[in-house]
Amino acid sequence: MSTCGDPVFTLASASPRRRELLALLQLPFAVSPADVDETSRPGERGDQLVRRFSAAKALAGARSDPHRPVLGADTIVVLEGSLLGKPSSLDEARAMLRALRGRQHTVVTAVAVVADRSVVWDASVETPVDMREYSEVELEQYIVSGSPFDKAGGYAIQARDFQPVRKIQGCYPNVVGLPLCEAVRGLRAAGLDTGRVPTAPPCDLCHRARALYEGGPLTAGA
After folding, report:
1. pLDDT per residue of the chain (222 residues) written in tens, 0 to 9
2. Which SS3 state, helix, strand or coil, does residue 20 take?
3. From the CB of residue 104, how many other CB atoms can be counted at a distance below 10 Å?
4. d(CA 90, CA 61)
5. Which residue among 47, 65, 74, 130 is the active-site one?
6. What stretch of H or E contains 126?
7. Running DSSP on this structure, what letter comes out for residue 108?
């Protein structure tokens, strides 16, 4: 699978949100999901985990597609030191969303880019997120929809029917699942002309990503 034109890099992820975000860069890319072991290690911090996984995905993608730079990414939610990945059951999704309700947590996403079979870029971004006090009815309706099961922490910031997030501080696309600023820096490190140099978030790419999903800003401080 690829976007229009000859692909200039490969995304090693099956995430539709990452595909949508990367399309904002207007660079043609191929998609080749990488299958890696995503088992955490004892005492591993969130940033360490996602950087290890993103690099593993990019390296795995490069083995099957060695002729183009490969971008890997991984996201985790950190709540008071606890790492929340993708829920595997209704009960786990329910427990995650209850734990996050009305509290602040941090979304950590890492990006790794591999070129010539070596990691040329590796970075992670942390975004504080404040959740609103959604009701039990809203929580259950969201769970029944099936939406929580492919998302770290069990939620999507861009969920229009649920809208679980009250405020963020920093990079909006990082919470969706891919900090575009780091993706651009990684692709530039691999020798690609991205046509832009990102600034500190919230940057133009942050605003474009938020407009894509939300059509406008969140509350002040986002």
Report:
1. 445 579 999 999 999 999 999 999 999 999 999 989 989 999 999 999 999 999 999 999 999 889 999 999 999 999 999 999 999 999 999 999 999 999 999 999 999 999 999 999 999 999 999 999 999 999 999 999 999 999 999 999 999 999 999 999 999 999 999 999 999 999 999 999 998 777 887 888 998 998 998 774 443 233
2. helix
3. 15
4. 31
5. 74
6. strand 118-131
7. E
Q: Determine the residue type at 34.
A: A
Residue 74: active-site member: yes
Inter-residue contact 142 to 162 (CB < 8 Å)? yes
DSSP string for residues in 136-205:
HHHHHHHHHTTGGGGSGGG--TT-TTT--EEEE-S-HHHHHT--HHHHHHHHHHTT---S----SSS-HH
Tokens of 120: 């040329």
Where do the domains of the chain lie?
9-213
Domain formed by 9-213, architecture: Alpha-Beta Complex (3.90)
Chain center to CA of 19: 11
Cα separation, 216 vs 204, in Å, equals: 13
Q: What is the pTM of this model?
A: 0.92
C-beta separation of 10 from 29 below 8 A = yes
Report which of 168, 102, 174 is spatially closest to residue 139, judged by C-alpha positions.
Answer: 102
